[in-house]
């Protein structure tokens, strides 16, 4: 999953303009969260009617099909674009001029004679497993390249707003069996059906945030004298507060004999929050770090998975020992802490981007100067 989560975002940065990335990120988050939500639903019926071992076979089949589809229908998007003036299309700046001007400039630059674009590869050529190398940096320096981004304030913001929010949300399917068994005496298939609430939240967020994130940033840029700023994306990260309401509402509802539909609605709110704010934070990362966003996401996913791995050892025991209400309030508090990170990021975002721009050597380990776009 780590390669998928990192490479997809990098591909979006390579092939879409700044005002097109938001809706594409929403579609990507919809796909990931739909799989996370539908997986337990289908798996519950497999456990109840077949066996838990068969569940792994049902996972292996679509994964095998995905490998075939990726091989035949997902071409390589990275290539070295050489220019006569020493600049690359990947190093464009969007926050110092209007969106319309930015798009026009990039369209002109793509058709300019200064660019020496490689010839279009045929379909059989795209199927080659080996396409050559895109850098002269040795493997050890490539391994070290993501770690300097720990010095970037944007990394810590994305870690909290996207990575940790994913961790809190991933804990719900892990401990939902315990919660719904204790509170409502649900069977395995009934517990699986509760994930439909999360799916509803995901679909609603996709329909709303898909056009809203791109149209909203364009609208904000027009009212900012035609100047686009990546911090516009952070407005949509504020939807993380819906996740706080989801966890806290479920916690309070357990003490007031809340029916199961209320708990499912709270799960829908948490999933809605993840799609809206998660896609916005990733788009902000793409706007800020550009082609280096791949390295940031690699470290974010690694640290997030380590945190989630550690939580799996005690999360169900926490629900049993501390109770449903206290456990959900803890998740609500964690979600609120991550949401508050968006406030200093919005206030000091320009300074953070200025720091990144003024100290490029801090974030380039063994940079050979070859653009990879």
From TrEMBL:
Q: Which Gene3D superfamilies match?
A: MFS general substrate transporter like domains
Signal sequence interval, chain numbering: none
The membrane spanning regions, by residue number, are 26-48, 54-74, 142-162, 168-186, 193-212, 232-253, 260-286, 292-315, 327-348
The reply to whether Transmembrane helix figures as a keyword in the UniProt entry is: yes
Q: Which InterPro entries does the record match to this protein?
A: MFS (IPR011701), MFS_trans_sf (IPR036259)
Query: Which keywords does this chain's UniProt record carry?
Result: Membrane, Transmembrane, Transmembrane helix
User: What are the protein's GO molecular function terms?
Assistant: transmembrane transporter activity
Q: Which Pfam families match?
A: MFS_1 (PF07690)
Locate the compositionally biased regions of type Basic and acidic residues: 89-98
Q: Region Disordered: which residues? A: 86-120
Where is the protein situated, by its record's location annotation? Membrane
Membrane topology of the entry = Multi-pass membrane protein
Could you state one GO cellular component term attached to this entry?
A: plasma membrane
Bias-annotated ranges (Low complexity): 110-120
Q: What is this protein called?
A: Major facilitator superfamily (MFS) profile domain-containing protein
Q: Which organism is it from?
A: Agaricus bisporus var. burnettii (strain JB137-S8 / ATCC MYA-4627 / FGSC 10392) (White button mushroom)
